[in-house]
Fold:
Amino acid sequence: MHFAQLPAVDAGAVPSDGFLLDVREDDEWAAGHAEGALHLPMGQVVARFGELTEAAADGRRVHVVCRVGGRSAQVAQYLIAQGLDAVNVDGGMLGWEAAGRPLVAETGAQAYVL
Structure:
């Protein structure tokens, strides 16, 4: 697949109050995620699309993230096709962590990107 036309933003450039959609699996989310992100595993995006449209009802840009950017690129492409303002987060959560952005873990343990 080729995502050349897909809008993307560097992890360090995501606004701190931006709408972040994490499409990783449950174990990845539990290990470490951005505080305030909406967790919607990639395989559930279509079925739970209504949750997204509610969260983005005010026209907020949806910043889609996964581990490195492949899954989030596919989800961002789908969301754009549905009329949402979506961008892929380049480098995914690994880029997020490398940019020094904060992570939290479900367990309260040291958060990391799985």
Strands lie at 8-10, 19-22, 38-39, 62-65, 86-90. Helices lie at 26-31, 49-55, 70-81, 92-98. DSSP finds four helices and five strands in the chain.
